[in-house]
């Protein structure tokens, strides 16, 4: 069973977003195949991690959602000192993530020996989608105690987590090179936008064009590169890689998906 550790950033009232993400993730059947091996956080994120771990320790993931919602309904803002500490810790966290990515890439290329001192750690990041929130975000909003604002953030966190879970299903299907499984995860009227070097610059619409596009990518060995972090923000983004033609190095790019009701409505694949 894959082991997962979760790091929760702080940020005053913005941490209600983290609470919404955890509530959705820990209450989902899709994560039953993963072992939550540890949780950590800073400032308000530490509170979220503590409440969630308390419920997980007792074998009651659903209780984590209730505890988080209760806490963030009653509390939100942190002091300016807390915000300063959080900004420093967030910078340190991203430095650490960059180091982990580098180790993953060295393992992938064989420059480090797998199975000895190092092993691959897949990084996944769920972030606020600022464009989807009805109100502006900034330093001042970290102190916003308006119940509607807190509720909006928690609701948005749940939506982002749901999209993240849908993206995991799409990722697994793509990694398995199962055309039928991938096609099942597209919406009824999907659009794929392809671009060199992975395809001609054009759009693909309709089930038959999408099927042919996916088959062509699989035949070329296009795969998701999990040595780079997978980010869910405005859209869900993966790094991708494909085999060169023998006269050139491997091709690198990105896949960016927009979801609608748990299905891929639009997919863009292009060079990085």
Which key terms come to mind for this protein?
22% strand, alpha/beta
Give structural notes:
The chain is 43% helix and 22% strand. Strands 3, 4, 5, 6, 7, 8, 9 and 10 form an eight-stranded mixed β-sheet that branches. The protein is α/β, with parallel strands linked by helices and 272 residues long. Helix 1 packs parallel to helix 2 (44-57) and helix 3 runs antiparallel to helix 5 (147-175). The model has no long low-confidence stretch (mean pLDDT 81). The radius of gyration is 20 Å and the shape is globular.
Shape descriptor: globular
Total DSSP E strands:
10
Q: Assess the beta-strand content as a share of residues.
A: 15-25%
State the end-to-end CA separation.
33 Å
Low-confidence stretches: none
The percent of residues in helical segments reads 40-55%
Please give the count of helices: 7
Structural class: alpha/beta
Oligomer: single chain
The biggest beta sheet reads: 8 strands, mixed
Output the helix-strand order: EHEHHHEHHEEHEEEEE
Mean pLDDT, all residues: 81
Radius of gyration from CA coordinates: 20 Å
What's the layout of helices and strands?
Layout: E1 3-8, H1 15-26, E2 35-41, H2 44-57, H3 61-74, H4 80-108, E3 124-126, H5 147-175, H6 179-184, E4 186-194, E5 202-205, H7 206-219, E6 223-224, E7 230-232, E8 236-242, E9 251-260, E10 263-271
Parallel strand pairs: 1-2, 3-7, 4-10
Antiparallel strand pairs: 4-5, 6-8, 7-8, 8-9, 9-10
Helix pairs in contact: 1-2, 1-3, 1-5, 2-3, 3-5
